[in-house]
Predict the 3D structure of the following.
Amino acid sequence: KAKDAGRNRVQFFDPKMQIAVSARATLVNDLYCAIHYQQFILFYQIQVNHHGQIVGVEALLRWLHPQKGMISPAQFIPLTEETGLIVPIGDWVLDQACRTLALWAKDPATQNLTIAVNISVVQFNKDDFVHKVLNKLKHSGANPKRLKLEITESLLANNIKDVKAKMVDLQQHGITFSIDDFGTGYSSLSYLKQLPINQLKIDQGFVRDIIHSRNDKSIAQAVITLAKSMDLQVIAEGVETNEHRQLLHRMGCNFYQGYLFGKPRKLEELNLLNITNVTKP
Ligand code: C2E
Ligand code: MG
Ligand code: MG
Ligand code: MG
């Protein structure tokens, strides 16, 4: 730091920092272009029940950058939240998801599948969020009961009254809620009984080493027990092996998502037939 270097020395701007700043500016600029040129793609990853039947999918955003190729959301979502760009991008995601739901509604084989959409705190906290979601559903003709919103505990850290009012409004229209990455946030558990939540999602961080880590297993078990006792659904994410699935099943978890059942794919490449090539527990 400049101060540590001493008062009489002139400290120049760290060139590494300069690069970071300009890289960020370039990325922000590229993100504006991405919206304009529609460089986003929505991938879908299937979610199954304990019979291996598909119950729905999670929509996961991808950015097809003209030079850098496919960029994962972890690399650009935080920046879109800081700049507010997540709002138009999130609108696009919801539009796509509603369209897919409307499409699926026409076929008995797909009409009961849900689509879970990740919602950023920034997006949810906009005054017109509820209005927007309802409008998109109405416009597309999608069944609100098939739309699930994945929110995180960070949303529940403050203005819980506002959050509750919006959730109740959406829930009354049939929309359901899942708490993503459950157990990784800092919120108190008391919100669970105050809010219209349908599902807890066990974070993949607890699933990854669940076979060998007693701690991870204990946490996953606590989430499952909590969910059951509050009549909430519980789904595990990051299920990669049969061992994962079998253990989670024995622990009482009924829904799974992960590479074992399928990686996130484009709509056209999604295989919505039942998963049969997996050993049953
Ligand atoms: P998330 O919602 O917790 O999504 C789960 C992540 O785990 C996804 O990463 C998914 O591809 C990955 N995953 C699924 N199964 C497995 C598995 O078996 N093993 C491993 N190692 N990973 C698995 P992805 O697609 O890179 O998304 C990262 C995060 O970006 C998401 O985490 C979500 O928080 C955020 N995100 C994605 N799409 C959107 C979006 O449309 N809007 C917002 N606001 N955030 C999004
Ligand atoms: Mg999610
Ligand atoms: Mg998650
Ligand atoms: Mg996660």
In short: The radius of gyration is 21 Å. The chain has a mean pLDDT of 91. The chain has ten helices and ten strands. Residues 181, 203-204 surround magnesium ion (ligand 4) (CB under 6 Å).
